[in-house]
Amino acid sequence: MSEPVQSSGAPSSTATADTPALQIEDMHAAYERVEVLRGVNLTVGAGQVFALLGPNGAGKSTTLRIVSGRMKPLRGRVLVDGRDIAGRSADRLARDGVCSVPEGRGVFPSLTVAENLRMWTFRGGLRRSEVEDAAYGRFPRLAERRKQLAGTLSGGEQQMLAMSRALSTKPKLLLLDEISMGLAPLIVAELYEVVGQIAREGFAILLVEQFASTALAVAERAAVMVQGRIEMEGTPAEIGAAAGALYLGAGSK
Amino acid sequence: MNEFISLTVAGIATYGCVYALTAMGLVVTYTTSGIFNFAQGAIGMISAFFFYELSRVWHIPAALALLIAVFIFAPAIGALLERLVMRRLENAALEAKLTVTIALLLLGIALATALWNPQTVRNLPNFFNGHQVSIGGVNLTYQQLIVVGAAVVAAIALRLFFIYTRAGIATRAVVDDRELAALTGASPARFAQLGWAMGCGLAALAGILIAPQQGALDITNLTLLVVNGYAAAMVGRLRSLPLTFVGAIVLGVLYSYALGYLPSTLIWNDFANITPMLFLLLVILVLPQSRAVLNRRIMVRAPRVVGLRESLIAGVVLVAAGVVVSRLLSGANLGYANAGVALGVIMLSLVLLTGYGGQVSLCQFSFAGLGAYAMYEVGGRGGSLLGILAAMGLAGAVGAVVALPSLRLRGLYLALATLAFAQGMDTYFFNNSQYFGAALSISVARPDLFGFRLDSERTLLIALTVVFAVVAVLILALRRSRFGRRLVAINDSPAACLTVGVDMTRSKLAVFTLSAAIAGLGGALYGGVQTQVGPNDFQFILSLTLLLIAVVWGIRTTAGMLFGGIVFALSPLLGQHLTHPRDIFNLMVGLAAIGVSQNPEGTFGGNTLLQRWRDSRRPGEPDAVAPSVGASAGEGRLTHAAG
Amino acid sequence: MLQVDDVTVAFGGIRALVDVSIDVEAGRITGLIGPNGAGKTTLFNVITGLQRPRNGQVALGGVRITTKGPRARARMGMGRTFQRLEVFGSLSALDNVLVAVENRGGLGRSARQKAADLLARVDLGHVARVQADVLPTGQARLLELARALACEPKVLLLDEPFSGLDANESARVGDLLEQLAGEGLAILLVEHDMEMVMRLCARIHVLSFGSVIASGSPDQIKADPGVQEAYLGAVVSAGAET
Predict the structure, then answer these.
(1) B246 CA: distance to closest CA in chain C (Å)
(2) ipTM of model
(3) Is residue B37 in a domain?
């Protein structure tokens, strides 16, 4: 997957095909007084699918929180499409095309499916019909349940609804946090097909996953984060070889 | 039968629909910003005056004036309040949130008094000069038709807005999941602002529509009328607009029946007047409560726990200062000082209940009034020690009775239940000639403690200082005791208390009772200071002011309460030089309390200069445990800055 | 000591736990592992009484406690820590423990001494007077452990006690848990640090999608292909698309 990113959907992007979608430089962050990120450097190329793996508490989700504008780093720079995001609020970034699907709750439970889709149109320059076509076209099950409250959908359907935002909003940069959490393998497979589809359309994706093999299967590049630092970066194959040891303890393989 | 129909119509058209408008406004602001707006009534009141100004003074056509007040004036106030004040309160403790809107309430009253001299009579005519139509044999004024029409149109418009417009959907989305809303590109702050603008617009509409039916415009009446809307909002659990609407209509009709059918003897008449409050109490008590909420780390530096030696020294110093001050002051000033210290004792009751226990009570002055009453009944005949005991006993017992059904209530619901109780006490007890005599005034005996006659203001001040010091030292000792730890623990994490096995019910009941008893003690003393007290001394609105001052001075500190009490007592002093004493005072307190949004821990608590000075004197504590990060104080707030 | 039989929990139609049965023996550390969202914390809430199961039974020392509230269970000897911290934030570390000690009837100086001893046991003696909200996460976890121990539990439920701890602290807590088990305590440990789980636990239950998919010794669990899949995810066909 190395075709250049000339996505029709990324509006008014000043970036050229060579500008990385995301650059993180020497990022430090802390909750209260506990440092969770200790100098993270990471680059997601234009149109690249990047898998960020690592044990719980390593700082993966914190990284996503910062990139999506929900948290401020203590130090370091974050560039999206070559532009520094410092001082931009989460909603501003979202309107500009940073699409973040947070862990476990990417939908509004007390809004209906159709109303959820209506919310996706806050991403600048989208029409309601475009969003609905994209979502219902890919997930016909959502069309059947358009009047149902999102909170009453099954876990898999909720995640489909959440992914429909990524699918329909043509993001400059897509941030996915453990989209497979708590879902049955079959549904995970379906969701990852969508990830693959989005990737083929040329959008850059930063993928945080606990299920290493699943993520590595779609990624072009991967890194493992441990204790707030990038411990290892490489091709999916290289990272995959080391994943078992990481997850089930050193002695397991 | 005819009477029944006309009462029903009046219930719906005169009361129900106005309650509905204001209650829907409360729900909209509460859901979008998490803040219960006690100032809803004040906004309605100010809007009514503004409307009067436009239509009667500037002679703008009524319809146009109405549009300007409801769609421009009030929403602008709401939007401004959200931007300047409410936005900072997102992570503040409940009492700080309550305090700020209570401050706005008082501020609104103060501003209105300053702008519109209460001596001037202002009448708003009914729309269409009170013309009537007859529908199916029932006479309706155009005014009533307009009220019903406005309420129905507002309800339908709100419904359409929330279901069909993107902004409406986004507002609900923000309520659902604030952070996710931001991630989709909808700015939560903007929609909270919209919520405030709409809520205030509805308040204005309610205020303007009910004003002509109340005779001459009256600042306090208009402000408090809307309080009845609280009950309706509770029916909708502060969430559902349709239920709120239904609740408002039911309440309005009940109120109308109570007015029409209950015998017009004094007591029953009073009963009719407290129907809305009874309704509120009932609704709150019947409502299912949410389960134990898990802890949210608020990261507020708790005031240091004061040790025994230190509190004793401070107590002795305070008494010594009392002796010195009693020599320095004379005449009326001594009276203010006495009242201040007595009020300080009442305020100490909040340290225990709210400061440590996290339960917000809006009826401490009712307990104080009970104390004064017991002192009058018992103290006069049975000697003052017995009187004091009776004061504490009566207030404590009533406190326990109030607390029992409220134990399962938390936060705002408890606060509103106590508010309802206080209003009930106002009408049913303090304004009742059966207890307070035909003149509604009782003379309370001054205590003669330990054989000292306290007739002179000087000795009284010393004695009061001693009492304050003793109560404060005891409260601080309680904080260091098993009971105090348990109280704070329950406030910090109910879930952990459950798994540790703490009996939360018993502790809550105990603290409520004890706090009421302290308020009763303070009330008995306050009564003695004033010698003559009546309903005005224990008005429920004073309980709001009390909480407000306590929060401003630091509700978790005892020292703050002394200053708070004195500030409270000094309010009449300003009266010698200013035209509207109480209101200038309210203005000041209101402004100070808005300052709470900047510093929710109060003057003597939290991250103030004082605290920093104390910190600098004890090196090696908390900061010493800071881990490797070079985190300064500001960075500790990272989690709040997020999103 | 602790038995959970066929417990099912549903939230609005979505089943968080399905017929879960586990047992936790006295004198041993039992592990409960599984991917995020598998239902571990929900199971803890069922065991401690914060969550009512739709059906199934919980028994402590052979006595059925399914219908008992959390307070009664605490008195019967159940102590727990929380994954999302639940310290008494505005109390000092010592007072946090003291609340629990006093709740067991401790009084005065001896209670204070006991609380101090417990703090010392989890290496928090030096921060006894620090307000709990100011403690870093690792120390706050240890504080919860000390508080749970103050309830004199027969069963100790630990929800990710090692997260936020550095290597040194982890090692010491590991030793402490072994010591406690040696004293006869039944410990149920939810943890993501697999090395720790494999080292400490005599027996491990694996939870996935609300069901127990495997139970056994650490070696059996490591070798179980189902467990491998639950953790690493099946290799998805979408992989072909890269």
Answers:
(1) 27
(2) 0.88
(3) yes
